[in-house]
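Example record for the data management plan.
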Amino acid sequence: MGASGLLVVFPFLMAYAASSDLLTMTIPNWISLALISGFAIVATFSGLGWAEIGWHVGAAALTLCVTFALFARGLIGGGDAKLAAATTLWLGAGNMLDYLLVASVLGGGLTLGLLTARSHPLPSLLVRLPFAVHLHDRTTGVPYGIALAVAGLVVVPQTVLWSDLLGL
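Corresponding structural encoding:
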């Protein structure tokens, strides 16, 4: 389960979170719970020691504290906060800052792109797509889960967990 969890379950959940946020502007709680459960299973089969697991859990807890502070200030959504923490659980303390930096850069680009798109009329072809109309609405937030998910996929190959499971 270890390698398949990392190579199949983690990317699937990241892609689902991103697409869900794009289409509905929500990230269901079950995604974060599945990431947490999946990590517990992968950690068991990967041979991570208790200390290493503790560092992963600590990084996730710290990320949750920071992202919930951002949520409390209305800067990100609650689903984004939970997704960032659950993703950090997989990436660990050693990759937490890389993940948050990549997510910030991608999120900034996404935000600028969306603001630019919203300053122009929605193309007539997209008017028939409810998610596009909702996404184009200036009062709607930014589906930041896209940046969080892509950042997780970009950073995960750099993790010790990845190297250990794939024998690199």
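Summary line stored alongside the record: Residues 2-166 form one domain.
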